[in-house]
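CORE FACILITY INTAKE
Project code: CF-77B
Contact: R.S. (postdoc)
Sample description: multi-component assembly, two entities in total
Requested service: structural model of the whole complex
Turnaround: standard
Below are the sequence entries exactly as provided by the requester. Do not edit them.
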Amino acid sequence: MQEMLQVVDLWVSVEGKQVLKGVDFSMGYGDVNVLFGPNGAGKTSFMMSLMGFPKYKVDQGKIFFKGEDVTDKDIYERSKMGIGLSFQRPPTVGGVSLERLINLLSKNNGISEEEVEVILENLKIKEHIKRSINDGFSGGEMKRSEILQLMLQKPEFVLIDEPESGVDMENIALVGHAINHLLGKDKVRSPKRGALIITHTGYILDFVNADKGYIFINGRVICSGNPRDMLNEIKRNGYKGCQVCQ
Amino acid sequence: MPISENRLSEIKSLAAAAKDKKALLGPDVDLERFKELAQRDRVENLSSLKAQTMEAAIMSGMDIKEDVRSGSFVQLNHSVIYESLNEKYKDQLQIMSTDDAVEKFDFIEDYFWRIVKPDQDKYTAAVALNPSHGYFMRVFPNQHVEYPLQACLLVDENNISQNVHNIIIVEEGASLNVITGCSLSKNDAEGIHLGISEFYVKKGGSLTFTMIHNWADNFDVRPRTSIHLEEDAKFVNNYILMKPVKSIQSAPNVYLTGKNAAAQFNNVIYGLKDSYIDLGSKMYLEAPNTRAESIARTIAADQSVIYSRGDMIAKTKEACMAHLDCRGIVFSKEATMYAIPALVSEGSVRAHLSHEASIGPISQEQVEYLMSRGINKDDAVSLITTGFLNLNIPYIPKFIDNKIKDIINATAKDAL
């Protein structure tokens, strides 16, 4: 069967600095994979490149999504094809209320007011929607807002950059359950969405059943395996072991 | 006449001496060009305004049905064509032509040319020498009027100088919301609007004043406004300019003379075509615990030139606080924007004065963020720009919001 995502020998630079150095990577439909790696390894750059941010300049290689070459497509086009991104640190959009964005996304994607109400209730975010997008949001509120937007956007494939960063333990559970729901993992008959998740702490693995883990070092994927085994190994020996293994 | 001959003579004399005195700011306008007299007949209700006039009034925020207004005043050129006061509120407030108020009330002398000087410049002098109405509004003590009063100053004739004098008095403990619009219903008209406005908010009173300007390419505008605030008085000024104007220059003075008085200015300015726009405010913090804030959101498109000013002048020796927040976006390579905040402390050792002034492009990061949600680039820019201009001004009709969006869509293409 055709892969949902296929990345072939991807080289990317940001302002002249090489951040990805020949990434080969693929994922099947509905797969949930996890990216591990030290700070500065290129994980976020990889996600931003998959989403098509122009700052991340593709020097070489190709990105295929659902069999189509999307290397030259812009962010909007990729989003319309079914890629969504939960930002690690989303920007504040002053003067534009979260409510306005909710209305726009739900209208664009055929989501009823009742469905929106349920999502807001589950994410415990209703009291914040009058505020400007991400304006003064705590870490947990920001992540819940990101997941909310993705639920309204209904992408087929979700990129989630560090869902635990800046989030307290109580909110991690809430965000974790929400991601599980977003990916359709909490109900047998829900449509399944693919996801690539960057995690440092691995807390998210307590809530989301990941299929495969990858280790990203120095702008490349260097190995893959069972995500829980990998996390345990990283916790024991850090990434030094990976370099030896490599 | 309740105003003494001596006082009137003094005003005329001061004005006569200043009739050629150029203003400190803004291009000089030759007033001799605008000598036509244009009288118009009264109308029975706002629905009987001519279509073009009505449209201009609506674009200035007028509620034609007056459902959610407590009273209305409409002046067309040099004539007052409509005045109304909802019966329900007749024991709470008064609304009429300033000329009528001058004829009627003994107290008016205390408010007439007191905080705007007739000899400030040639424009104030012109109004003092040749006034043509303007509105008078007064809310009685401790009255809180449910709905706003509305006033509209319209022009539909060429080569006229509309010289209005507006006076608002909010008596002790009272509150009032006013929506005013100034508009041209003849888009190619040449002329000038000179508006003297003297607002008095007494102890514990509150005035929210919203002005929507809809001028046109060949029209000059020189408002001269001052506001006097007593103890615990509050004044909020909202100003919206979304259409081209040949030139406008205004910087209202706000005198915070009573302790705990507070003033806030919100300016939303969109420079189009070759408009010359010089707008700001001067707030004088003269009493303990006075507070002032001035927020401006400015966009310069096409070949427009915008000066966005704000002066905070602390005079009290006790604590006071003032803040300026002045942000601008330049949409066009041919537009120019100046952001000029000024903070002055005249021996005010306990004053806290601050400002944030910035001019910058639309944030690429914000646009890309919204694009990643499946919103196309043009819509993302429109959403962000609308948000930038959104100061949550109440009682602004929905269509003005839509108008803002239309203008943004037409001018924001080069914004990135």
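Facility notes:
- Residues 398-411 of chain B form the longest helix (14 residues).
- Chain B has a mean pLDDT of 92.
Invoice: internal transfer
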